[in-house]
Amino acid sequence: MIMRIFQVVTRPGKEEAFGRFFHETAIPLMKGTEGIVSVLPGASRPDSPREFSFVMVWKDLDALKAFVGDDYKTPHIDPAEAELVESRSIKHYDLVET
C-alpha cells in the first residue's frame, strides 16, 4: 500500500474559504475515491492556521495513478482551490503494516 501525504499552505486571509472547500468538497471527494483504503484529513490549528493536510492510504500505485495520472509525484489541486493556495507539497511512502 502507498501512503500519500498532501499538505497545503493557504494564501494569507484565505484560511476560512479554504476551510470550507476542504470540509465541503475535498474530504467527501477523497473519501469517495476508488482505490483509497483510508483518508485522514488534518485541519488547521491555532498555531498553524494556514496549514491543512491529508494522509491517504492507497491500495497500490496503480490505484493512485488511476486517480491522478502517471505524474503522481506532482501535487495536483482542484481549479476551485488554486486561488486559495500559496504552496503545496506531496510525499509518498510504502505503508508499514504493524
From TrEMBL:
Residues 1-70 form the ABM domain. The keyword Oxidoreductase applies. It comes from the Bacteria. The keyword Oxidoreductase applies. This is Antibiotic biosynthesis monooxygenase. Transmembrane segments: none annotated. GO terms for molecular function: monooxygenase activity. Gene3D superfamilies: 3.30.70.100. InterPro entries: ABM_dom (IPR007138), Dimeric_a/b-barrel (IPR011008). Keywords: Monooxygenase, Oxidoreductase.
